Amino acid sequence: AQSVTQPDIHITVSEGASLELRCNYSYGATPYLFWYVQSPGQGLQLLLKYFSGDTLVQGIKGFEAEFKRSQSSFNLRKPSVHWSDAAEYFCGGSSNTGKLIFGQGTTLQVKP
Amino acid sequence: ETGVTQTPRHLVMGMTNKKSLKCEQHLGHNAMYWYKQSAKKPLELMFVYNFKEQTENNSVPSRFSPECPNSSHLFLHLHTLQPEDSALYLCASSPEGQDNEQFFGPGTRLTVL
After folding, report:
1. Using one digit for the tens of pLDDT, what is the confidence trace for B24-79?
2. Nearby residues of A8 by Cβ (< 8 Å), 6 or more positions away
């Protein structure tokens, strides 16, 4: 069955530290992959997406993600976290004929 | 107004009430979606409309009734809800199909008493 898994429910990092949020997928073929961010009380905003091509994808707000087929992963990274990055992050995947499936989300807390 | 808008932003209703959630997109998209987001649960896709036709109903109880009069508007009619239906209801749209990026509205926070 198709699935997207975010192993970390909650992550805390210090402001200025680097960040990596994990995402694993299970699809028959390479899916389309997305990372969204949700601030409290808000909808989801797209950070970046991967369809094909370069496996390192740049997104908004200084985020990037790397697609690794061998590991079935699409981890989100940021070199230096800002307090405003505190939010919930969702990884999602879809096939070209299927629906968009989200992981359970990772809540990011940023310590001053 | 740009993007995807949802009204109301907050709704409190009793179990015997009938209410409707409204979603409007100003992006020229052809697909629209309803999602349910409950605490500590993944986002749940409820309904999908492509070109005003419902293409997916994810085993949603009949107390939730969607309506898509045109590609820009999507409604979710609610009646005889249960307290466990309390959640954030998110609307999204995309150019076509679900392999394209979806744009989300801010959601309606629903509380069923």
Report:
1. 999 999 999 999 999 877 889 999 998 888 888 888 999 999 999 998 999 999 99
2. A21, A22, A106
The answer to whether the bond into B8 is cis (omega within 30° of 0) is yes
Tokens encoding B94: 């995309």
Query: Element (H or E) spanning B41, and its range?
Result: none
Q: Could you tell me whether strands B10-13 and B108-112 are parallel, antiparallel, or unpaired per DSSP bridges?
A: parallel
Residue from A10, A39, A94, A99 whose CB has the most chain B CBs within 10 Å, to mutate: A99
Strand-pairing partners, residue A108, are A11, A87
Among B4, B96, B100, B101, the strongest candidate for a mutation testing the A interface, having the largest count of A CBs within 10 A, is B101
Chain B residues within 8 A (CB-CB) of chain A?
4, 6, 41-43, 45, 48, 56, 90, 92, 97-99, 101-107, 109
Across-strand partners of A24?
A: A5, A73
- Do A105 and B42 lie within an 8 Å CB cutoff? yes
